[in-house]
Every structure is written in C-alpha cells, then in structure tokens.
Amino acid sequence: MFYFGMLAIAVGLGLPIAVLSAAMGQAKVGASAMEGIARQPEASGKIQLSMMIALGFIESLVIYALLMFFFLQGRLPATADILRAISR
Question: How far apart are CA 29 and CA 8, in angstroms?
Fold first, then answer.
C-alpha cells in the first residue's frame, strides 16, 4: 500500500515540478539571449540559434516528464481496488 501512495505522490507532483522548472529555465534562457542581443546586435543570429537549441533541449525534458507521467499513471491501481484494500 505504501508503494501505491508514493506512486500517487510521484504522479501528482512530478509533472508540475518538471513544468515549473522548465518554465524558469526557459525564462532564464530568453532573458540571457535578450541581454546578449542588446549588448551585441551583430551577433543576434548566433545568439538566436543557440537560444532555440537550448529551448528545444529544455522542452524535450518536459515532454519526457509528461511521458513518464502517463507511464506511472497507468501503474496506479483502480480506486475500487484501493478502497477494497483499505477496508480489509
């Protein structure tokens, strides 16, 4: 029963934590790119390319977290099974 409780917590908290962390990372990447472009406008093409690659990596981690969320959610037992186990 403890396993299913920890699994439910992981499913419920894992994705929001991953999304919030990615949002903060994307904001930092965007802000740094804007600062770099403001300081060196002639290098804007290279900065934008690097920014897009970094944003792609960050977003791929969120998609991976979403995939793990769906895999773990499938491992959770049905509510009826949980209630039956508790009532014993």
Answer: 32
